[in-house]
Inverse folding.
């Protein structure tokens, strides 16, 4: 019997309104959906809005989404609470370049390096806010302190949020219109409804011009495997992602607060036994960072050591320790 999801929430950053509306318009005749747009200036976070949501939740994951405070605040707790109802689509994001123009940014979270770049982003934001507070006494207010706490919590949860998300069924938006959204119906466990939807399309393909009109659509993965929910992805990293600047980490007031980050326990976050990756999975991930290093990669080794300590300081001590252990085994001298 077909699963008929009557209550589907499409959640996205307002920066990605065009793709969200394209999805809604294309399938709403068969799958009515409730759009939930998250704006950076709004008061309630995504996790607040979906705290008591029922039905399926589809997250449109973009670079904008992963860099949005309102999208990421409490996201890990929401994912753990609603993991049986949450699925995701990967869509391109956008940034404003130096000329003030909007440019498309591909969104990935399947590789370790993809995850680390977002961990670094939130760690950098936290450290920058700490610096501003030290240098500007007027920022010593309850409001700023609360904002600082939120950013600190996000910096400690981002890695685990993306690890869990990539292990759940997900696909890329790019393949959906050309395949009449078959993978999307499969994600929602509504395969029989897809047969009805397909019949309403009368065998007509989506015009290329329609897809090309969506900003950033060309940045989505073209590999056919990208449309297979939960498909494992192999990788070989040829370079290490950028780390937090050394002189920023060296500031003693920030290092003094490292324990605060590690000990943060935001509301809705499950205990470590529920969300922590196994040592075997961690070892597989960190091996990717070391296997491609040349024999005399002194600078790269130092970067890995710095990355291990940064992960430990942000609350991901398990990955940091296994990374150091892996590095020691490979370079005993």
């Amino acid at each position: 019997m077909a699963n008929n999801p009557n209550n589907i929430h499409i959640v996205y950053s307002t920066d990605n309104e065009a793709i969200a509306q394209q999805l809604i318009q294309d399938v709403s005749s068969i799958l009515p959906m409730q759009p939930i747009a998250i704006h950076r200036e709004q008061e309630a976070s995504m996790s607040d809005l979906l705290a008591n949501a029922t039905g399926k939740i589809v997250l449109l994951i973009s670079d904008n989404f992963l860099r949005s405070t309102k999208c990421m605040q409490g996201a890990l707790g929401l994912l753990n609470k609603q993991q049986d109802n949450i699925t995701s689509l990967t869509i391109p994001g956008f940034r404003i370049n130096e000329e003030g123009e909007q440019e498309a940014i591909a969104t990935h979270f399947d590789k370790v390096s993809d995850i680390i770049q977002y961990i670094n982003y939130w760690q950098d934001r936290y450290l920058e806010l700490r610096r501003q507070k030290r240098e500007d006494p007027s920022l010593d207010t309850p409001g700023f302190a609360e904002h600082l706490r939120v950013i600190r919590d996000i910096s400690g949860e981002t890695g685990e949020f993306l690890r869990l998300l990539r292990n759940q069924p997900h696909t890329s938006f790019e393949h959906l219109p050309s395949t009449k959204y078959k993978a999307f119906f499969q994600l929602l466990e509504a395969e029989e409804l897809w047969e009805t939807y397909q019949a309403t399309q009368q065998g007509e393909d989506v015009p290329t011009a329609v897809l090309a009109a969506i900003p950033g659509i060309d940045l989505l993965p073209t590999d056919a495997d990208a449309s297979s929910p939960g498909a494992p992805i192999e990788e070989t990293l040829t370079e290490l992602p950028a780390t937090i600047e050394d002189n920023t980490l060296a500031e003693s007031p920030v290092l003094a607060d490292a324990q605060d980050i590690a000990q943060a326990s935001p509301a809705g976050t499950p205990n470590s036994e529920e969300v922590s990756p196994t040592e075997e999975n961690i070892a597989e991930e960190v091996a990717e960072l070391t296997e491609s290093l040349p024999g005399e990669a002194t600078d790269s080794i130092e970067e890995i050591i710095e990355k291990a300590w940064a992960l430990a300081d942000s609350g991901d001590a398990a990955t940091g320790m296994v990374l150091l252990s892996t590095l020691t085994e490979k370079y005993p001298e």
User: Anything to note?
Assistant: The CA atoms of residues 1 and 153 lie 42 Å apart. The chain is about 50% helix and 10% strand. Confidence is low (pLDDT under 50) at residues 206-211, 223-279.
